[in-house]
Amino acid sequence: MAHPADDPPCFPQLPTLLYQVVTFQEQQETMPVTNFRIPERYEYQTGFAANLETEAIKGALPIGQNSPQKCPYGLYAEKISGTAFTAPRWENQQTWAYRIIPSAAHSSFEPAPSGNRLKTKFNQIPNQLRWDPFDINADVDWIEGLHIVAGSGDPALKNGIAYYIYGATKSMNEKTAMYRVNLVNDEPIRGYILELFNGHFQLPELGPIGSNCLANARDFQIPVAAYTHDSKSTWTVVNKFCGQLFTSKQGHTPFDVVAWEGRYYPYKYDLGRFNTIGTISYDHPDPSLNTVLTANSNAHPGTAIADFVIFPPRWLVGEDTFRPPSYHRNCMSEFMGLIEGSYIAKGAGSGGFQAAGASLHNCMSSHGPDVEAFDKASNQELVPVKVGTGSMAFMFESCYMVGVTDWGLKMCQKVQKGYSEESWGGLKDLFTPPELPFRE
Ligand SMILES: O=C(O)Cc1cc(O)ccc1O
Ligand SMILES: [Fe+2]
């Protein structure tokens, strides 16, 4: 867990959303280049959803216009649209990049083998599911170690979500990009990814909480412009497109953006900075109180395509309260993962809920504390307790029914047998009604 002052953030197994920026950093750190302009220390701008501008060379960003007849320093202007041109102003996301060679300069994309591991075919099943920690295979880079576990919908219709896990033991081949992930000191990496087939994450409304708490806008970090200048080597660009990989070649680095301005950019957020709040009186508030980011469905206010929710270290002080999450059936689907440590309310059963594992409680599937957690929480002395020290569990909560890929169900061989029986099969009938008056 990072202390707020720690920099860089300390999660080696970054949960998802933020991986783009990690790759950006690694690229800066390790790529051998002949001519480059990158900061000695990683530098960031901060905020959330702000229109930003940054230039690695003073004067590289045109002033007062996007498309001058000739861009400064012989750069090309390239616009990246993250929303329809005509999306409402508050949600419109686009960026003007000023780069050495436009991204269009590449050979045609050819299919590349990726088997089924990125296919968006989902088996919908009502059972509660839990996975042992996923393997990190030997001798794989980030692209090869990427698998869809679960999800919903169809990327071709831009409607749905996909949940991935990844594990890698080596850096990506030199001069290959999709994103670019290099390992620091050859340490293996693993993590979870949530992909939206449409839309973008926003900070949740705070309502009566007020103008601070949860994830504060100032803690989101956006890289300043940095580039490499290499128009000689051959690069392979990997394109993940509707469930399969394609590759193309180009004679220049894709990491060549010298300046940019706009609202469509990668950012990172250190979960250790989350300002967790909870009850200071009684009862267990809904986990929506722990939402870092939300992607709204727009169909129904407050109903998310995906909420990214975390369970950081926190104090539990509720009086006369069953403190863990209660038994629950949810019309939203809950996919959980554990970055490190342990999670309140789960643990028993073959293997338990372990870091780098996962669980899925699909739409309306019953779940809650296992027998052991129920006994403990029903009988513990209700003094203030700090829970989750050294832990970080998270949940992707979605209004969609979330299915499991063939890989997630069978090929990964991590689904725990007997999860539901072992967790809840032993719950006893504790009902002790008062003696009824005798009736004729
Ligand atoms: O553990 C879970 O299932 C997630 C969860 C957490 C919580 O605090 C309340 C409800 C809930 O579903
Ligand atoms: Fe739940």
TrEMBL record:
Residues 43-176, 177-271 form the Homogentisate 1,2-dioxygenase N-terminal domain. One of its GO terms (cellular component) is cytoplasm. Pathway: Amino-acid degradation; L-phenylalanine degradation; acetoacetate and fumarate from L-phenylalanine: step 4/6. Signal peptide: none annotated. Keywords: Dioxygenase, Iron, Metal-binding, Oxidoreductase, Phenylalanine catabolism, Tyrosine catabolism. Its cofactor is Fe cation. It comes from the Eukaryota. SUPFAM superfamilies: RmlC-like cupins. GO terms for biological process: L-phenylalanine catabolic process; L-tyrosine catabolic process. Residues 273-429 form the Homogentisate 1,2-dioxygenase C-terminal domain. Fe cation binds at residues 328, 334. Its EC number is 1.13.11.5. GO terms for molecular function: homogentisate 1,2-dioxygenase activity; metal ion binding. The keyword Magnesium does not apply. The active site is at 284 (proton acceptor). It is an enzyme of class 1 (oxidoreductase). Homogentisate binds at residues 343, 367. Belongs to the homogentisate dioxygenase family. PANTHER family: HOMOGENTISATE 1,2-DIOXYGENASE. This is homogentisate 1,2-dioxygenase.
